[in-house]
């Protein structure tokens, strides 16, 4: 596959609509966050998320809603959650959304803490900081996907967190991006084109059963 084929898009593709999908996806994530409270489990949180989506005019999901609580925050996208986990009084969770608005894909994720859990808060912030650090290398240095993820691993280790190598970012575009090729951002050997790639960061505490996740579009910084 030629590298430029990995960034192919459909005729309906529009950068403004991609940005709008991104913005609405972040609004949806914040709407779900507002409904999270101690005692809720992942199934209940996903059920309440549907109400948030309806209010925002969601067209469809392009990947299942992922909400991970407590020890499940160390699990990757394809791993099943440990059943029966409910959000504790001093706990953490993350939300990962793949939503379609106006025929374009949004994909966002972030980690949050309830109560008093300083180590979990530090982990959540570290994932955000690491994302911003890596994204700056893309914006200002033009690094390819491979170099970006090698750097992410090195920085995570230096910060004292365990980096999840199974998470390597991916394509988005007009729906469905799967017909336009794609693959992992972490395997890309040229500078990723703006507005087409999701940078994913997942880290975990080196010994405790919790982690953090953050993802967003490689594009201009959010306002």
UniProtKB/TrEMBL annotation:
Residues 17-186 form the Peptidase M24 domain. InterPro entries: Creatinase/aminopeptidase-like, Pept_M24, Peptidase_M24B. CDD domains: APP_MetAP. It comes from the Bacteria. PANTHER family: AMINOPEPTIDASE, CYTOPLASMIC PEPTIDASE PEPQ-RELATED. This is Peptidase M24 domain-containing protein. It comes from Dyella flagellata.
